[in-house]
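Listing S7. Sequence submitted for prediction.
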Amino acid sequence: MAKQLQEAKTRQDVKNEEMKVKIIERTRQIELQEQEILRREKELEAQVKKPAEAQKYKMEIIAQAEKEKIILEAEAEAESIKVKGEAEAFAIEEKAKVRS
């Protein structure tokens, strides 16, 4: 009987150790999965997010440059019209002086 108890205890100890091993293996699998998730997140950021942010920044810079170009062209056109008007006014005044 003592031998049977000892064998039962030994079998139970073996099962307990097997369960511990399974728990350790499962914990390791979870850790590996978490590491893989982090790796994929970094990969996603490097391949998708960063280029998208760079493209967004590029488009913002291009839009700002285009806006400034339009403003400068409009200011130059206004200045040209002003100078042309002043020149015409001056020419009219000079013609009027010559006629007087």
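Caption to Listing S7: primary sequence and predicted structure tokens for the chain studied. The chain has a mean pLDDT of 93. The CA atoms of residues 53 and 59 lie 10 Å apart.
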